[in-house]
Amino acid sequence: MKNATLLLATMAMAACTTTTPPPFDEDGNPNVRDPAGECDAEAVQNHIGHQASAEAGATLLDLSGARTLRWQPPRSAVTMDYRPDRLTVTYDDDMSIEKISCG
């Protein structure tokens, strides 16, 4: 029983460790995540006031460089997790875009 407890404790601790070091470039510097797909909401701020639609969403994705689009309807809750590749578009009851942001 004592050996089983020790084994389980060792396995649990091993699950919390990282075994793979981050990749490094030829100069020994850590590689940085490729920024492709990161959202740029500044590029689409002129679309505030436009009607929310599937076509508008496709245009906003294309112009912002984001990989994913999240529509936020009025009076709805959304997750607070931050994703640099996601464009969030908030609209009102009349389907008019009120806010465009990344995350």
Task: Please give a structural write-up.
With 103 residues, the protein is α+β, with helices and mostly antiparallel strands. The chain contains two helices and three strands, in the order ααβββ. The protein has helices at residues 2-15, 54-64, and strands at residues 68-72, 86-91, 97-102. The chain has a three-stranded mixed sheet with strand order 1-2-3, with helices on one face. Strand 2 and strand 3 (97-102) form a beta hairpin. The longest helix is centred in the N-terminal third of the chain and has 14 residues, at 2-15. The N and C termini lie far apart (49 Å). The mean pLDDT is 82.
Notable traits:
103 residues; 3 strands; alpha+beta; 3-stranded mixed β-sheet; single chain
Shape: flat
Radius of gyration: 22 Å
What is the number of beta strands? 3
Portion of residues in beta strands equals 15-25%
Helical/strand content category: alpha+beta
Task: Identify low-pLDDT runs.
Answer: none
Write the SSE topology.
Elements: H1 2-15, H2 54-64, E1 68-72, E2 86-91, E3 97-102
Parallel strand pairs: 1-2
Antiparallel strand pairs: 2-3
Summary, kept brief:
24% of the residues lie in helices and 17% in strands.
